[in-house]
Design a protein that fits this description.
five-stranded mixed β-sheet, 3 domains
Length: 189
């Protein structure tokens, strides 16, 4: 018998993948999955589904760690963070948390992205992820990256963010400046 994702567990890798995709890609809460399985004659308690989700999320950690090391072995890394809504246990309202994406450049032989979740946008999360790495970081002007620049990381501005500033100028009252900047940007990329 092949090794299971959950030691001594009954769910197959396919069933666990189904539950995870339904929950995270299709946004189908576990209480609804419980009802769907029930209609199909499978009595799987929501608490069991929650345990599966937790264990399935933890098991690939060695792969995540290896992917992080592979990305941070590159001389140039792109970084960006995006807000997500998070409902903490016992809370009635969601609050803003963040998923940070770190990836290799399009010019790297290694094509990889690693994601890091954090409950806030504090710069310490980027610093903790990057650790002692001190290559070139392509990022926006978020202040959370600044401490890394003081510790040897080289800042490379993001061209998409630079273009956006010119676009904003073009749409605003400084149209000539914006048009000139946008034209210069097009020549660079």
């Amino acid at each position: 018998m092949p090794a299971q994702i959950i030691d001594k567990g009954t769910p197959t890798a396919g069933l666990l993948a189904h539950v995870m995709v339904a929950k995270f890609a299709d946004h189908l809460p576990l209480y609804r999955q419980e009802k769907i399985f029930g209609r199909a004659g499978l009595e799987i308690a929501r608490s069991t589904l929650a345990q599966w989700v937790g264990q399935t999320g933890v098991r690939p950690q060695p792969l995540v760690d290896a992917l992080r090391e592979a990305v941070l072995s590159q001389r140039v890394v792109h970084a960006d963070e995006t807000p997500v809504q998070m409902l903490a246990p016992g809370e009635k309202k969601t609050h803003r948390a963040y998923v940070w994406a770190y990836c290799t450049t399009p010019f790297s032989a290694l094509k990889a992205v690693v994601y890091d979740f954090s409950p806030s946008r504090a710069g310490e999360h980027a610093r903790n992820f990057l650790g002692t790495w001190n290559g070139k970081l392509v990022c926006d002007d978020f202040a959370g990256y600044k401490a890394g620049f003081e510790q040897g990381i080289t800042e490379i501005g993001c061209m998409a963010h630079a273009r956006r500033k010119f676009f904003d100028l073009q749409c605003g009252e400084q149209k000539p400046v914006g048009r000139t900047g946008a034209a210069l940007h097009r020549r660079l990329v």
